[in-house]
Structure prediction request, 174 residues.
Amino acid sequence: MNREEKTVIINSLADKLKEYSHFYVTDTSALNAEQTAKLRRMCFEQDVTLMVVKNTLFIKALEQVEKNNEELLSALKGVTAIMFSNVGKNPAKLIKEFRKTNDRPILKAAFVEECVYMGDNALDELVNIKSREELIGEIVGLLQSPAKNVISALQASAGQKIAGLVKTLESRNA
Prediction:
C-alpha cells in the first residue's frame, strides 16, 4: 500500500469519525466468513457501520480529528474492527445479541457520549447508557409533571365552582 492509498484511507476514517458521534473498537479475529457476514448484516440492519482497519491508520485518523486519547490508543493492538454509530448503545446491544451464539466480537474500547470506556466488562454499562435525547426527554417529563398536576387541579376545581354557580343562579331564577 503506497502513501497515497494510506492518505485516502486515513481521510475516509477521519470522515467517519466526524460523521458518527460514537464508535466501538472491537476484536473480531476469531470469526469465520459466515459469522462475519452475519455480524455485518446485523450491523446494517441497526444502522451501525463496521470497518476492519489497520491500527496505525486509525491512530492517524484519530489524530486528524483530535480524538487521540491515550486510553484509546492502548486498545489499538491486534486485529481491530471499528463499529460507528450515531446512537451510543446500538453497537453494545448488537454485540450482546451476537455473542449469544458466538464468543466474539470482544469490546476493546468505546467512545460514547464524549467518554472512553475500556474493556469488555464495560459492555453491560454501555447497553444501559441513555442517549442525550433520552435524558432530555426524561428531564422535560419531570419538569412537566408538577405543572400538569397544578393545571388539572385548577381545571377540576374551576369546573366544580362554575357548576355550583350555575346551579345557584338557576335556583334563584326559579
About this structure: The chain has two domains: 3-129, 131-174. Strands lie at 22-27, 49-53, 80-85, 106-112, 115-118.
